[in-house]
Amino acid sequence: MKDLHIKIRDLNKKYGDTDAVKDFNLEVERGNFTTLLGPSGCGKTTTLRIIAGFVKEDSGEIFINDQLINDLPAHKRKVGMVFQSYALFPHMNVFNNLAYGLYLKKLPRKEIEERVKNILRFIGLEGKEEQMISQLSGGQQQRVALGRTIILEPEVLLMDEPLSNLDAKLRISVRNEIKQIQKKLNITTIYVTHDQEEALSMSDTVVVMEAGRIQQIGTPREIYNSPRNKFVADFIGMKNFLEVFIERMEKEKILVKANQNKLLMNRVEGADLSSGEKILISIRPEDIKIHKNKPEKSVFNLWKGIIWQNSYLGKIIRYWIQTPDGQEIIVEDYAPKEFLEGEVYLEIDEDNIQYIQKE
After folding, report:
1. How far apart are CA 43 and CA 294, in angstroms?
2. Within a 10 A sphere around the Cβ of 323, how many other Cβ atoms?
3. Burial 187-224 (b: 16+ CB within 10 A, else e)
4. Using CA atoms, how far apart are residues 47 and 236, in angstroms rounded to an integer?
5. Among 63, 92, 111, 330, which is least packed by CB within 10 angstroms?
6. Cα distance between residue 271 and residue 238, in whole Å
7. Are the C-beta atoms of 184 and 150 separated by less than 8 Å?
8. Is there a single domain that holds both residue 21 and residue 119?
9. Are 156 and 21 part of one and the same domain?
10. pLDDT in tens, 122-138
């Protein structure tokens, strides 16, 4: 039986005529790391701020531990929020930043010192308590912001793009630290980001949003491997979308035609498809094998093309390839030994062709 910690039902919020959040429904199990993922302006931060009590919803219900919290002020909701800007006090040292919320609760000095000491050890900043915020690195500041929130022992942790101010290398390190801390505490967390890699690497559950609406909820693997529609597929990193014509339905396979090229793909479980129908499919750039010469073995899903552009990305070379019938295909070749030029052959495995449902 699910141990539901947070339940959100039919949440709505408008700003003028714009739906910031529309018909939002979500259940979060205790200890789950749930990420709201989507582009800027999709409503993810507004949703987070409504849960926190900083923004009032127009309609809908929010429950924590089966308690309706809509009318509770923010400080009584038992949630902690880590902001994008960290919101640390630059005129205070690390100790006082961490202890600030405990001072407001008027806890005994001895208890405050003990809890700050424990948090410093937990976030890996022992010995830094006397340093000012300006003396810390970006990653250390982020850990202080997280520590200041969890020292208050909230039931639910809310995080709004907390890594966006860090450089790319540091983001990877700090997101791993956040995930480890969250798992150690087993604290229910709702995290907001526009970064697909961040969401996939950190989350138990991903909620993809667009224009205030939920487009798909699933595990990172489900979101990546089985996107529900073109928006999710596109946002999560698919590049090759092809509108194809179903030429023939077989027992376990489907033969489709994209302009003059044909592809054999697997039948789609649960999809009501028929011969003569137009459908949308997608193939990830990393799932296409690129050959300098035509393979000696017989390959059915083999397309010929001409490389017209490439981009060197270190471990990857990304190729833009034009087929004779006008299709443009993006291919990513991992750990390549050489640049390819001119005419090439593309091998497309039928297991890697994904059917994209109509919206």
Report:
1. 48
2. 17
3. bbbbbbbbbbebbbebbbbbbbbbbbbbbbbbebeebb
4. 21
5. 111
6. 20
7. no
8. yes
9. yes
10. 888 888 889 899 898 88
Beta carbons within 8 Å of 82's beta carbon, 6+ residues apart? 145, 146, 149, 157, 158, 159, 160, 162
* Pair 264, 353: CB distance under 8 Å: no
pTM, to two decimals: 0.86
Number of domains in the chain: 2
Contact 285, 332 (CB under 8 A): yes
Give the range of the structural domain holding residue 258, as residue numbers without chain letter. Answer: 240-356
104/119 same-domain check? yes
* Amino acid of residue 225: N
* Contact by Cβ (8 Å): 150, 177: no
Question: Are residue 72 and residue 197 in the same domain, yes or no?
Answer: yes
The token pair at 354 is: 């994904």
Same domain, 120 and 244: no
Highest mean pLDDT among 1-5, 193-197, 353-357: 193-197
Q: Closest Cα to residue 256, out of 237, 236, 271, 238?
A: 271
- Asked if residue 186 and residue 59 are part of one domain, the reply reads yes
Q: Are 122 and 41 contained in the same domain? A: yes
